[in-house]
Design goal:
O-acyltransferase_WSD1_N, 450 residues, diacylglycerol O-acyltransferase, O-acyltransferase_WSD1_C, six-stranded mixed β-sheet, CAT-like_dom_sf, 2 domains, glycerol metabolism
């Protein structure tokens, strides 16, 4: 048995009836040319015959005397984890997103390994889809998508013979007990050595705060917003792709990165959405931006290795260029500070930055240190295939919690950036309108570049 890290345990303990804490991904595929009408059913039958499972897909949580461990499931049953289903007619993307919204709202049973994969047919354009969800105590968003990508190939014929994701797993070998003990001692030593540097970085941040550095965002800056309320168990998932070329062109003209453009699009979309609801705060919204700490993303150990940076969305600014510049300045400030620290130092620094905001919150969800989570996961840079089918879209389906009713996560691929928005359906009405607002925000930036 392997003991869970404190972060992994937290995702189990924070789970509530209205707050399932799993993450997922919706993928769209075009079947091979000339595929017969029963292609999806044949593929489902072949996948259902799988006879092996690799870590972490074979592990379920176990609690002993308040301590959580992963144990191998001695009675692993693929039928519980792999589901073949068809959309109701007419099989539009609308029906697909509604199905994902419902399925993503349901908890994973802790009596089994905490994951499930759905193969979905019945789309009106002949494509098929997969929806995979896995508990956040098992993987974070980056490592989860990386595991799924290991079952794909950039060669169509090769992909047709590859095993399903649960047979490949993370590719990480369990660390021997003695080596793990040595690693823990090394971590404690590293933490002791890093303490002075973290303290210096925090002191510099507090000096910047006192001098009102324009690019610094603290955990006390987030305004009260309808984005920060208690949530219900109902979810709404919305997804759409946007042109990478268009976004890179904007970034090049304005002197920013693709990620700066992503943040500016989200800011512009949220400004429009909240304005339509009469709920735009006078002060700028603050985004929590996850930063992966996995050193080797291809062979990352299962579990969570992530910290957060705080960035302004400058939603108080009507001018899209000024808004972009404010966002870029905030992101550049964070990058400069983060690049000077190692993994242990980043975790300690982020905790120190977030603590004042968490204390200020004191159970009041409207006083969260952030207003929204915006996460950018790097995806494949070449066309990819799964079971002979070409990947057309890879849309993350993240999680929301009390106080954070909206999560925007995206995957950047070679030609498209795939946005996945998950929200509490009751707290944030008609959140799918953000998809149109994202396009409008991109057009607004393009027009400002002319």
């Amino acid at each position: 048995m392997r003991r869970l890290s404190p972060t992994d345990v937290a995702f189990l303990l924070l789970e509530r009836r209205h707050q399932p804490l799993h993450v997922g991904a919706l993928s769209l595929f075009t079947p091979p040319a000339g595929s017969p009408p029963g292609f999806a059913s044949k593929l489902a039958a072949e996948l259902a015959e799988s006879t092996s499972v690799a870590p972490p897909f074979d592990r379920r949580p176990l609690s002993r005397l308040g301590v959580f461990y992963w144990e191998d499931d001695p009675h692993f049953d693929l039928a519980h984890h792999f589901v073949h289903m068809a959309l109701p007619k007419p099989g539009r993307i609308r029906e697909l997103l509604a199905m994902v919204s419902r399925v993503h709202s349901a908890h994973l049973d802790r009596a089994y390994p905490l994951w499930r994969v759905y193969l979905i047919e019945g789309l009106e354009d002949g494509r098929i889809a997969t929806y995979m969800k896995i508990h956040h105590s098992v993987v974070d968003g980056v490592s989860g998508i990386r595991m799924f990508m290991k079952s794909m190939s950039d060669d169509e014929l090769h992909s047709a013979g590859m095993p399903p994701p649960w047979e490949i797993g993370s590719g990480h070998r369990p660390t021997p007990v003695l080596r793990e003990a040595i690693r823990k001692v090394d971590r404690l030593r590293a933490a002791a050595i890093s303490a002075p540097r973290v303290l210096r970085e925090l002191q510099q941040t507090f000096r910047d705060a006192r001098s009102q550095h324009p690019d610094l965002v603290t955990a006390l800056r987030a305004p009260r917003s309808i984005l920060n309320q208690k949530i219900t168990a109902s979810r709404r998932f919305a997804a759409q792709s946007y042109s990478t070329a268009r976004m890179r062109a904007v970034g090049k003209t304005l002197g920013g990165t693709l990620n700066d453009v992503v943040m500016a699009m989200c800011a512009g979309a949220l400004r429009r959405y909240l304005t339509d609801l009469g709920a735009l705060p006078d002060k700028p919204l603050v985004a929590g931006v996850p930063v992966s700490l996995h050193r080797d993303r291809e062979h990352a150990e299962p579990g969570n290795a992530v910290t957060f940076m705080l960035a302004t969305l400058a939603t108080d600014l009507a001018d899209p260029v000024k808004r972009f510049e404010a966002i870029k300045g905030s992101m550049d400030y964070n990058k400069q500070r983060f690049q000077a620290m190692n993994q242990t130092e980043l975790l300690a620094y982020a905790l120190g930055m977030m603590t004042p905001g968490l204390l200020n919150m004191a159970g009041n969800w409207e006083r969260m240190p952030i207003n929204v989570v915006i996460s950018h996961v790097p995806g494949p840079r070449t066309p990819m295939f799964w079971q002979g089918c070409q990947l057309n879209g890879l849309y993350p389906v993240s999680l929301v919690m009390d106080g954070i009713a909206l999560n925007i996560t995206l995957v950047s691929r070679a030609d498209q950036v795939d946005f996945g928005l998950i929200a509490c359906r009751r707290t944030l009405p008609s959140v799918q309108r953000l998809l149109d607002h994202l396009e409008e925000a991109l057009v607004e930036l393009e027009e400002a570049c002319v």
